[in-house]
Amino acid sequence: MKVLITGVAGFIGSNLLDYLLEKTDWQITGLDNLSTGTPDNIAVHKGNRRFEFIENECTGITSLKQFDKVFHLAALPRIQPSFELISQHITANLLNAVHLIEVMIREKHYPRLIYSGSSAIYGTPENIPTAEDEPVNCLSPYAFQKYEFEKYLELIATRFPLDYVTLRYFNPYGPRSFNPANKFNAYSSVVGIFLNRKRNNEELLITGDGQQKRDFIHVSDLAHANYLAAIHPHKLNTAFNIGNGSTLSVLDLAKMISAKYRFIEKREGEADITFADITKAKTILRWEPSHSIAAYLKSEVQVKG
After folding, report:
1. How far apart (Å, rounded) are the C-alpha atoms in residues 102 and 213?
2. Residue 127: helix, strand or coil by DSSP?
3. What percent of the chain has pLDDT over 90?
4. What is the DSSP letter of 237?
5. Do 74 and 183 form a contact (C-beta atoms < 8 A)?
6. Which residue from 210, 231, 276, 284 puts its CA 20 to 30 A from 254's CA?
7. Quick check: 42 and 20 in contact, CB under 8 A?
């Protein structure tokens, strides 16, 4: 099996690489332009005969014929910057992904595409917990770009034999979620931001009143979902929620990490609550999360805090 991971040097991409190298015998090519990812995230695999790294843009891909599966993670996953750096985010989150489809069509070769989508497309949902048929309510350009590519997949698949799975991630956390060198690090996973400030003996900064709730999902559980989506024996061409199936307020999260926190201005364009209904992923992918955020925080604060 030969697979491609775009965005391999990022938070989720590098954890997916770790998982696949450990759990499979696949040959893996990883691509990243290193705009937000870092070589440090994949340095441990340097010299591994089963892994090849290419520093390039997704639009630099000229052929996908050698690949059986493509994991598309390359993106700028930041809500607030997407309001200002509009064209940059359209390129990163939409045009790069569309390029992959165009290569498939040109070559008449359709490896399964496992697309890293986002729960941001639901906005603040009407139904809690939220299933995949929840009405779309994009509150940011980022959310709209992620949903727009989902629609491209759906539409192009009516004319060409695309084979895809969309995984709508909820709120990922875990190793390497915070990169101090990333210019967008202020918009990283709130778990990573809080832990970084705790280690630096700084106050945790809570936006708004902290009552906004999030469904936090460990990055290893995301990696497992990607793997199961890749090996499923049938063409699925559908989307799955990948969350923990629970919710926690940002204020309660902060209290689990530190007693030193203060409140700052609320950010617009962000959901009041995310809470995944993961019934579909459990039923079809045979996937379910196995990590607890409470256990993760306890180990991180005790060992590194």
Report:
1. 38
2. coil
3. 93
4. -
5. no
6. 276
7. no
HSE-up (13 A, CA, CB side) for residue 110? 14
Spatial separation of the C-alpha atoms in residues 114 and 141, rounded to whole Å: 22
Tens of pLDDT, residues 2-29 = 999 999 999 999 999 999 999 999 999 9
Q: What gap in Å lies between CA 180 and CA 244, rounded to an integer?
A: 27
Give the residue from 283, 272, 277, 194 showing the smallest Cα distance to 243: 277
Residues 90-133 have pLDDT tens digits of: 999 999 999 999 999 999 999 999 999 999 999 999 999 999 99
Place of tokens 């049938």: 234
Tokens of 46: 């340097």
Q: Strand 112-118 and strand 69-72: pairing?
A: parallel
pTM for this predicted structure: 0.96
Collect all residues with Cβ–Cβ distance below 8 Å to 50 and sequence separation of at least 6.
21, 25, 26, 27, 28
CATH of 2-173+217-244+275-290, one of 1.20.1260.10, 3.40.50.720, 1.10.1530.10, 3.30.930.10: 3.40.50.720
What's the token pair of residue 16?
A: 């997916």
Comparing CA positions, the residue from 222, 196, 210, 180 lying closest to residue 270 is: 210
Residue 185: predicted pLDDT: 64
